[in-house]
Design a protein that fits this description.
The chain is mainly beta. The protein has one domain (2-297): Beta-galactosidase, Chain A, domain 5 (Distorted Sandwich). The chain has helices spanning 238-241, 289-297, and strands at 2-8, 11-18, 23-27, 33-38, 66-72, 88-91, 95-99, 108-115, 122-131, 137-147, 152-156, 173-175, 186-189, 192-196, 205-209, 213-220, 223-230, 244-248, 253-258, 262-264, 269-280. The longest helix has 9 residues, at 289-297. The two termini are 22 Å apart.
Length: 299
């Protein structure tokens, strides 16, 4: 596993992590943000907003793409706190830790630790949010990955059950005011939901659900980005109980996982862990439900 400094799309201070099977780029000029993820020599699977590349110091929040850490529930003041300034990078034996300075308005500190194994197209991301206020605040960590356009997302539902065997509900399916389940970008299978990104679409789409084994994947031209996390069925989650959410508009598609809502004491922090991996697979859109199930279970 190697970490080396490099330039990237107008930013001078970036860190490339690679173990020969996966390559990630973290910019230190803004963030914390993972701006690129790919097979070595392959294409970046993350969306980069061209007009925002290389920029910093803006007086408004800028969606540059890539992977970021937010605070949930969504709120204009707290969630959209600026991440347009330089961050600190600490190299570790397994990767690095990217830490944002304490925000002067929210008094929140965000940190993403990235760990790469010695081999394999995998990474572990530990997201931390620390409360530097003098009082407790209640929030949840929210990890959002902005995928490049032109692909399709697949979300694994919790285990299904027969009516005779399970009388109580197994999970919520959460909708937003603009969610339209008749939109042709959606595809519903017995154990999966698919959402296709379409750059010609006029309106966004979003949905969320709870799954103890949260598994969301995005396929772009045969390459697949998969991220997984564990959710606690005994905990309370934002957005009517969602542990994962998936959003698309004409620019991109976003895979989102969330940690539980917690009351965080002064000086304390919360963690949310995601596991990433890269794969190659036949078209999700052409797979049957059984084939998709076998694919997810085999990862």
């Amino acid at each position: 596993m190697s970490v080396k400094k490099r330039s990237y799309r107008g930013w001078a201070n970036n860190y490339e992590l690679s173990n020969g099977a996966i390559e990630l780029i973290v910019t230190a000029d803004v963030g914390p943000r993972v701006i690129s993820c790919q097979f070595p020599g392959g294409r970046n699977l993350f969306k980069n907003y061209d007009g925002a590349m290389g920029g910093s110091g803006e007086d408004h929040w800028e969606n540059r793409g890539g992977h970021r850490l937010w605070v949930a529930p969504e709120d204009r003041a707290t969630t959209y706190a600026l991440d347009n300034s330089p961050i600190s990078i600490t190299e570790t034996a397994e990767g690095l830790i990217a830490t944002q300075p304490v925000d002067p308005d929210t008094r929140i500190e965000k940190q993403i630790e990235i760990r790469l194994p010695l081999s394999g197209a995998e990474a572990t991301l530990v997201h931390r949010i620390r409360n530097h206020n003098r009082f407790a605040i209640r929030f949840a960590p929210w990890a959002l990955t902005v995928m490049a356009p032109g692909g399709v997302a697949a979300v694994a539902l919790p285990p299904r059950a027969r009516h005779e065997d399970r009388l109580l509900p197994t999970n919520p399916l959460v909708m937003w005011g603009y969610t339209d389940l008749s939109d042709p970008r959606w595809k519903f299978l017995p154990r999966h939901i698919l959402l296709r990104q379409d750059s010609a679409a006029a309106t966004p789409q979003k949905a969320g659900l709870f799954a103890e084994r949260t598994r969301v994947a995005y396929q772009l031209e045969g390459d697949v980005f998969l991220k997984t996390s564990l959710a606690d069925p005994a905990a309370t989650y934002p957005d009517m109980g969602a542990s994962c959410e998936f959003f698309t508009n004409r620019d991109m598609l976003e895979l989102e996982t969330l940690g539980p809502l917690e009351t965080v004491a002064p000086g304390a922090f919360v963690e949310h862990i995601e596991h990433w991996s890269l794969h190659r697979a036949p078209s999700f859109l052409l797979m049957s439900d059984d084939e998709l199930h076998a694919w997810f279970e085999g990862r």
